[in-house]
Amino acid sequence: MTLLDLSGVSFGYTKTKPVLHGIDLTVTAGDNLGIVGESGSGKTTLLKLLIGLERVSTGAIAFRGNPLDTSDRAFMRGFRRSVQAVFQDPYSSLDPRQRVFDIIAEPLRSLKVDTDIAAAVMQALKDVDLPADAAVRYPHEFSGGQRQRIAIARAIVAKPDLIIADEVVSALDLTTRTRIIDLLRTLSERMTFIVVSHDIALVALLCERLVVLEKGRIVEQGATREILARPKHSYTQKLLASTPRMPGG
Prior knowledge:
The chain has a single domain (2-242), classed as Rossmann fold, CATH 3.40.50. It is an alpha/beta fold. The protein is built from 9 helices and 10 strands. Helix 3 (100-110) crosses helix 4 and helix 5 (144-156) packs parallel to helix 6. The protein has helices spanning 43-50, 73-82, 100-110, 117-127, 144-156, 174-187, 200-206, 224-229, 234-242; strands spanning 2-14, 17-28, 33-36, 58-63, 66-67, 83-86, 162-166, 192-197, 209-214, 217-223. The protein is globular and about 50 Å long. The longest helix has 14 residues, at 174-187.
């Protein structure tokens, strides 16, 4: 089943400075996708389009065959439940004034999900290997890796179909990165991931398919194993040459 489909998508923050050019991309359920590129390649802008924070300048994005219309509140409520994001910095992505229970429960409440909120929050904590008593604590009481687990719990609590992870381990130390990657691998058995990163080795650990962005254009895409074994574009070759292997790769 196709979750997201991008056709000829271009975008610019101003008319004279386009950031993305003619992006054609399909995200299929159960087929994890990695999007890689250096800073300035357009990864963050593409992510904003994928989660509906920006509108395309030209081209179209469809979700489950329907146009991604950010002005349609009913449509966007269903979209937000189905597509969740986890961002780079676990220190700034969590409200320090809220207890962990309320942080994780927020999507259920804002999306008006008909469920037992307490049971759903406890299950989400269990899914990310955090103890039940974490629910009554505040973000500052946790390490960086634990905060990222809280952010992941918030993203999965409404049981979305798609998680978009933006540089999800780049702010963590190596040991913690490995543990979070193992967690994402486990979760990817139940939901689909788009992993956005500058680190092609990290993406290779999580994603079956790979898209390489350079200066707002897709220069290479296909099966991850094939691209890693036989990169065709010089930019992909450059990324591979400059990226150390992750443990377990």
